[in-house]
Specification:
Blueprint: E1 5-10, H1 14-20, E2 27-31, H2 41-54, E3 61-65, H3 72-81, E4 89-92, H4 100-106, E5 109-114, H5 117-121, H6 123-127, E6 134-137, H7 139-146, H8 150-154, H9 157-169, E7 173-176, H10 185-198, E8 202-205, H11 211-217, H12 222-240, E9 246-248, E10 251-253, H13 255-268
Parallel strand pairs: 1-2, 1-8, 2-3, 3-4, 4-5, 5-6, 6-7, 7-8
Antiparallel strand pairs: 9-10
Enzyme class: lyase
Keywords: Lyase, Magnesium, Metal-binding
Cofactor: Mg(2+)
Length: 269
């Protein structure tokens, strides 16, 4: 599953849900949490399920961001979507503990969001839960929980590196946070590029204008693909000749480079 772009769509908006069918986001996240006022949550659940059954998104991943597990609404959300086969993934805000029980109960893939002090401390327990396929985070909620400055945590390299490190450890996707300044597409692109350099595989987006940029940045470039093909060919030839490391374009290439190259080609396909 490729998750270069994960688009949040308010579950209250029939217009936006219908529009999302036409968009090129790899993954759609229907939002029952922040995008829905408390008095509208029941109506949003009913409307969402009706539209999911009616519309066709092809093979794209369909997720629902439920309410925090500390709230009763989350269990109403989960009960509603558990019976809908088209929805294959649950996005969990403010995740703080092992989530294996939820995967066992629903059979749905899980994407926890690290948004609290406890969640950050317990991130390894969360990410290694059964059923977790990706992890992301929310800078605003996290900074509020920590009593810090949002602008600082929005760019905090320690938090970004910790999340991607744990994700890689347990072989799940690290997906970068949302970017709220919709008019600043250059800033959005820069943040995507920085996240990719850290090891993130995609970005959560909140507007259609961000989708193509995210897909472009998190796809292998032409140069990356050409490099990967050369490395794979040269390394496999060297292996047949009994060499564990080879010289390519005056640079040493070993098994680590080979694995990186294979990941690039697999992502492309």
């Amino acid at each position: 599953m490729i998750r270069r772009s994960q688009l949040y769509v308010p579950a209250t908006s029939e217009k936006m849900i219908r529009k999302s069918v036409e968009l090129k986001a790899d993954s759609i996240i229907f939002d029952l949490e922040d995008a829905v006022p408390p008095e509208d949550k029941e109506r949003a659940r009913e409307s969402l399920i009706k539209l999911v059954k009616e519309l066709d998104w092809g093979k794209r991943e369909l997720c629902v961001r439920v309410n925090s597990l500390q709230l009763l609404d989350s269990y109403k959300d989960i009960s509603t979507i558990a019976r809908e086969d088209k929805i294959t993934c649950i996005v969990l805000p403010k995740a703080e503990n092992d989530l294996s029980f939820l995967y066992k109960a629903t059979g749905k893939s899980l994407i926890p969001l690290i948004e609290t002090a406890k969640g950050l401390v317990k991130i390894e327990d969360i990410v290694r839960s059964e059923g977790v396929v990706a992890v992301s985070y929310g800078a605003a909620d996290l900074s509020l929980s920590l009593g810090g400055d949002y602008n600082f945590y929005e760019k905090n390299v320690y938090v970004k590196t910790l999340i991607v490190s744990v994700a890689r450890t347990y072989d799940v996707d690290a997906i970068d946070k949302v970017y709220f300044d919709l008019k600043n597409l250059d800033g959005f692109r820069k943040e995507c590029e920085e996240a990719k350099k850290l090891g993130y595989v995609g970005k959560q987006v909140i507007h259609p204008s961000q989708i193509d940029i995210s897909n472009e940045v998190f796809s292998p470039s032409k140069e990356e693909i050409e490099w990967a093909k050369k490395v794979i060919e040269a390394y496999e030839k060297g292996k047949r000749e009994g060499r564990g490391a080879i010289r390519l374009d005056d640079k040493l290439v070993d098994y680590v480079h080979y694995k990186i190259a294979k990941r690039i080609i697999e992502f492309q396909s």
